[in-house]
Amino acid sequence: MQEELLDDSSPTDYSSDGDEPLLSGTGEVSKNCSIAQLDEWQGILHEWYQDVPEKRPKALTALVRSGIPEALRGSVWQRLACVENRKEMFDSYRVLITKETSCETVIQRDINRTFPAHKFFKENGGTGQENLYKVSKAYAVYDTEVGYCQGLSYIAASLLLHMPEEEAFCVLVALMYNYGLRDMFKMGFESLYLRLYQLNRLMKDQLPDLYEHFAQMGVESHMFASQWFLSLFTARFPLYFVFYILDVFLLDGIPVLFQVALTLLSTCRKDLLELDFEGILKYFRVTLPKKCRSETQAKRLMKLSFECKVKKLRKYELEYMAKKEEKNRKEQELKQYEQRYGEERAKLQHEISTLNEKVEQMVREDRKSAGIIQDYKHIIQRQETDNGRLHTMLDELTSDLCAGASAPLRHPTSSYFFSPLEAASPYVGNAMRYPHKSAASGIHQSEDKEKEIAQTKEQRTKRDDGDGDYDEDDDDDDDDDDSRRHRRSSDAYGWKQHAIRGD
């Protein structure tokens, strides 16, 4: 039955004007009301005491759901919102409109596109736009946390069509604070995400095929329902349908939004199942609002919405909160892990930096050691070269000695004849016993002998320069000793000179 509800609309009702979306504020609402309706409402309003607006008459619900007469809407809306004749709020409004706000530019931009199809707001700078600007600005100053958000101007405009600006401001404040609308506008839109989650769960339960189709096409509920919820359907749909929704919303609150949304989806289910992603979004933007332009269609939709069951809203809210808490818990754990990871990473980076410094120091020390080793290698190489040269000299010296071994030598200053090998035996023997020592050792020994001979000569000279009294035998002994030392020294000296000259 719901699927056939909108099928009785002729093409001229919603598709004759092409693909252009319906302008907000479209539709004329008749203020005509029968005598019977006025009498019935007069009795309800008389029973409904102004000083206790929260105590609603039993027959009120049925009357509101049948539609509040246009002539009485302003008064009934204020009574439903419990803001009728609030003098203190009126005085506050007059002060608020004199204050400045950072949202003025945004407000001015929005009022130019709010209800452009309605004559009251059509004139740029006219009374309607001026009143809309003041109400929007007053709320932005009043609620500094939310300020002004797009969507508020459509609700304020709907109110201004039924009451003065002061009263419209009071009802707007009540809608935001007392009906949960303000939470959906708060930073982060957390309450709006909750409402969208609840709508998804209701669709999955009541319209599973449409839910699956949207999932396959990539259509998410926020793409069409966010504006519905934030503006109370006032931004897209014809005025008669909008006012009817406000009637029931002020009576029953948030559940009405889900009832209307599910009813719209249900009545358009067949059309939506045949469309792709772009077609679905266009349908919500253009086609669906045009199907609700007549008063008859609006009444049928609202009547069906009252039959829509949304008792599981609380269950889905708890489900959403549980998932949110789980998500927050995991995010907190992730943050803690990231913090620990950051600390460990910083610690490891410090250790790596320290190790790199040590490695660099070791590299520098290795380079220094390598240089020292290279220097030692050069020294050893030079020593090996010197040793080789000394070995060569030793070999040459040995050969020369061996070659002249058979020829006796006579010292130039002595008549003593000796064998060259006998004279060189001290040096040759040492060279043969200690091959690592050079021939310079023998030369050093000869130099020591020369020093000994020189010392002996010096002592002899001193003694010869004495008083001349000495024993002749002693003199002979001394002569023998001196002759022997002189021969040995002369022999050594002669052999040294012979070795040096290579004779």
From TrEMBL:
Pfam families: RabGAP-TBC. Keywords: Coiled coil, GTPase activation. Residues 67-253 form the Rab-GAP TBC domain. InterPro entries: Rab-GAP-TBC_dom (IPR000195), Rab-GAP_TBC_sf (IPR035969), Rab_GAP_TBC_domain (IPR050302). Residues 313-365 form a coiled coil. Transmembrane segments: none annotated. It comes from the Eukaryota. GO terms for molecular function: GTPase activator activity; small GTPase binding. This is Rab-GAP TBC domain-containing protein. It comes from Anopheles darlingi.
